[in-house]
Design a protein that fits this description.
The complex is a heterodimer of chains A (about 300) and B (about 425). Chain A has about 300 residues and is mostly helical. Chain A contains 13 helices and no strands. Chain B has about 425 residues and is α/β, with parallel strands linked by helices. Chain B has two domains: about 190 residues, 3-Layer(aba) Sandwich (D-Maltodextrin-Binding Protein, domain 2), CATH 3.40.190; about 170 residues, 3-Layer(aba) Sandwich (D-Maltodextrin-Binding Protein, domain 2). Chain B contains 19 helices and twelve strands. In chain B, strands 2-1-3-11-4 form a five-stranded mixed β-sheet, sandwiched between helices. A five-stranded mixed β-sheet of chain B has the order 6-7-8-5-9. In chain B, helix 10 packs across helix 18. The longest helix of chain B has 21 residues. The chains are: A mainly alpha (about 300), B alpha/beta (about 425). At the A-B interface, helix 12 of A face helix 3 and helix 18 of B. Chain A: It is found in: Cell membrane. Chain A: InterPro entries: MalF_N, MetI-like, MetI-like_sf, Sugar_ABC_transporter. Chain A: One of its GO terms (biological process) is transmembrane transport.
Chain lengths: ~300, ~425
């Protein structure tokens, strides 16, 4: 018996493949227009001395922009600031996020309420969070300094979290950890809840201690989830911009000038468009390369 | 009858169309601050006289440059008139953002000789000092100081100062005296509260710390170039005097400012003063009318002084000129506004409302110096103002200075000599890219 589809196909003269293309084409077009074309155009601009705010001829200068960026000590300092921020935020977020997930995973009264309260910070806008913490960090009126000096004694205005070179990077790490630990917690919680209870029951039968169950069952089975959380946070924090701008603006000096802030200054304040394009390409390659290696490792862990 | 009706309708329609084509809705773009509110008041007169309506786009200072330069660079038609920073004039002219006003000035009998020479040079001309005008001086301004007159005149405090320093407490006559006074107030308890010396500019993101530091640098004799127009900076930018001035500013920051003032500009300076934290504060003259009118810290409680000299007199130039944006569809109406604004009577009202006129008829008026407690200081400051580079690449030059100076003063990295040496390297690279070196 003939299906009703065939006569329609014949009427329109379209094959299955053609229909598929009709549906997929708009998405492909959008992808090309919004992602691929700008990427190619950026790569093209990275070999020029183009300045978007100037009416002058554009010259192709080969790899000069790349050479200048990679030999500029300031570039490496911003990379260093970014690496410091990345490492410590991920370290604390994974540690605290997993611990919180482990606690929340236990059945206790008010479990849902605590989960909601813990998750609240990640619902806020980074700009709002940055502004809010700027006030908390104020040496004279800020609650943070009072809290610290309440336990340590001393004058609350004796230190400035966002005004001192030694403290400013940590000020950002604290805020980002406060804000995004819940995200890691949720992913870990999903991992913990995906472990079948029968595995623990079997371990109990084999008289495995809780500690052994934790290291041989819980950690290995949550590891892919943890690695996924690290991937998400790593990519996000590599691009971190708004929170840092609100809190320190890259200062004091250039202590907290992460790569995204540096890139924004080059592109939209100095208007060195060609140079900034090369910078963006370098960052893209870095993130893409690191993420690819990481995803391979993640897949290996998953397949174990 | 029907025909007559149609004819009269057509005539009315034509008249109405003609009317709307003459009356324009002009948008004037500026920063969001006290003088902008005064300009709104002033412009009501223009609306009544011309039949045009005025809209205003005021952007907070920290975002002002970003927002407006993006608008100009994209050929946007948001602004018909723009009161842009003095440093933008080079880029505005060379990139075709601003309408050249020479022919218009000539046709309308507007003479630049009627405006204070320093303001014409800084706000209007490109290349600098040539008779090519891209703006009408709109708002004269310079960086200066204000202080707690009530504390300075307090007998107990005066005696304590005399005992501590051997000098009389007074408006500082030099940069070093300013430092001494600020250090005296630092951490001092007055009326049961801890007070601090001075609020200065240390902001990193836009132009703050550069505007503050140059206030010291100019008084020590800082020059951008050995010969104007040569871009020869070695020995000028990093002269021993410049190094000393930069070291002075760092000492002022470290020993005489409130805790945590590592990123402060106009707003933070005003807040520190109004909340009673500091004895002295630096800021632009533009804010002085508002400060004087403040019921708590204004009136008899406040005093004003020009940036004190050291080796020479010098003040950092602020202020802006008003330009017609070349992408405007209302160019004629915008020019009409400039013509109206240039009138001496309008300039007098502008000063009365809180704007700083640069017109000679206002500034040279015998009563001007006594017309406000800060008017005399304003005249004095405008005689010795210096401005940052006004090159088309000024943003690159500015950001380099922001970085080098903030790294040294606030982040305590390296020495003053190293900071200025690196600044020359940065600036040399910019001028090389520009083909000027």
């Amino acid at each position: 018996m003939a299906t009703p589809v065939k006569p329609i196909r014949r009427a329109k003269g379209l094959s299955d493949r053609a229909i598929a293309w009709v549906f997929v084409a708009p998405s492909i077009f959008l992808l090309l227009a919004v992602n691929i074309f700008p990427l190619i155009w950026t790569i093209n601009l990275s070999f020029t001395d183009f300045k978007a705010n100037r009416n002058r001829d554009v010259e192709y200068i080969g790899l000069r922009n790349y050479e200048r960026i990679l030999t500029d000590s300031d570039t490496w300092l911003t990379m260093q600031a970014t690496a410091h921020f990345l490492f410590w935020t991920i370290f604390f977020q994974v540690l605290i996020g997993f611990a919180l997930a482990f606690l929340i995973n236990k059945k206790f009264r008010g479990n849902d309420l605590w989960t909601t309260i813990i998750v609240l910070p990640m619902m806020l806008s980074p700009a709002v969070v940055g502004n809010f913490w700027t006030f908390l960090y104020q040496p004279q009126i800020g609650l943070f300094n009072y809290m610290v000096t309440f336990f340590t004694g001393g004058d609350p205005s004796s230190f400035s979290m966002i005004g001192e070179v030694a403290l400013a990077p940590w000020a950002i790490v604290i805020v980002d950890t406060w804000m995004w630990t819940p995200f890691v917690m949720l992913i870990c919680l999903a991992g913990l809840r995906s472990i079948p209870g029968s595995i623990y029951e079997a371990a109990e039968c084999d008289r495995a201690s809780k500690w052994r169950q934790f290291w041989t069952i819980t950690i290995p089975m949550v590891l892919p989830f943890l690695m996924l959380a690290v991937l998400f946070r790593g990519i996000e924090n590599f691009k971190m911009f708004d929170l840092v701008v609100q809190l320190t603006g890259g200062g004091p000096g250039s202590t907290t000038e992460v790569t995204s802030i540096n890139l924004k200054r080059e592109a939209f304040e100095k208007w060195r468009t060609g140079y900034a394009s090369a910078y963006a390409v370098i960052l893209f390659v870095t993130v893409f390369g690191l993420a690819s290696i990481y995803v391979k490792a993640l897949n290996k862990v998953k397949d174990r | 009858m029907k025909r007559r009706l149609l004819l009269s309708t057509a005539v009315l329609g034509a008249l109405s169309a003609a009317g709307t084509s003459q009356a324009a809705d002009l948008t004037l773009c500026w920063a969001a601050w006290d003088p902008a509110n005064a300009l709104v008041e002033l412009s009501k007169e223009f609306e009544a006289e011309s039949g045009h309506t005025m809209s205003f786009e005021f952007v907070p200072w920290p975002n002002f440059a970003d927002r407006m330069l993006n608008e100009l660079n994209s050929g946007g038609q948001l602004c018909d008139l723009l009161i842009g920073d003095s440093q933008w004039i080079g880029g505005g002219a060379e990139n075709g953002h601003y309408v050249k006003l020479n022919d218009f000035f000539e046709a309308e009998g507007i003479s630049m000789d009627d405006f204070a020479p320093a303001t014409v040079y800084a706000y209007s001309t490109w290349p600098k000092g040539t008779p090519n005008y891209y703006a009408l001086p709109a708002m004269g301004d310079a960086n200066a100081w204000f202080y707690r007159r009530d504390w300075f005149e307090n007998e107990e405090i005066k005696a304590a100062y005399k005992e501590a320093t051997g000098d009389d407490l007074r408006e500082p006559q030099s940069q070093t005296e300013l430092l001494q006074i600020a250090q005296f107030f630092q951490g001092r308890e007055i009326d049961g509260q801890t007070r601090y010396g001075a609020s200065i500019f240390t902001e990193r993101g836009s132009e703050g710390i550069t505007m503050g530091v140059t206030g010291a640098l100019y008084t020590w004799g800082f020059k951008y170039e050995n010969e104007p127009g040569s871009y020869d900076m070695e020995g000028a930018v990093n002269s021993p005097e410049a190094v000393e001035a930069l070291e002075f500013y760092k000492e002022l920051y470290e020993t005489a400012t409130p805790p945590g003032y590592s990123d402060s500009y106009m707003e933070q300076s005003l807040d520190a003063f109004k909340s009673g934290q500091v004895a002295m504060a630096m800021n632009w003259f533009a804010f002085f009318p508002g400060l004087y009118a403040d019921p708590n810290t204004g009136g008899d409680n406040i005093g004003f002084f020009v940036n004190p000299p050291q080796n020479q007199a010098g003040s950092t130039l602020g202020g802006q000129g008003i330009s017609v944006v070349s992408y405007s569809e209302n160019r004629d109406a915008a020019l009409e506004y400039i013509k109206w604004f240039a009138q001496p009577s309008v300039q007098a009202t502008w000063w009365e409302l809180g704007g700083y006129s640069a017109h000679n008829s206002v500034l040279n008026d015998p009563g001007f110096a006594d017309s406000a407690p800060f008017a005399g200081d304003f005249l004095e400051a405008m005689n010795d103002v210096q401005d940052f580079w006004q090159e088309p690449a000024y943003a690159e030059l500015l950001l380099a200075m922001q970085k080098r100076v903030h790294d040294y003063v606030v982040a305590d990295q390296g020495t003053a000599q190293e900071a200025l040496d690196k600044l020359i390297e940065d600036w040399t690279e910019v001028f090389e890219d520009e083909g000027k070196l």
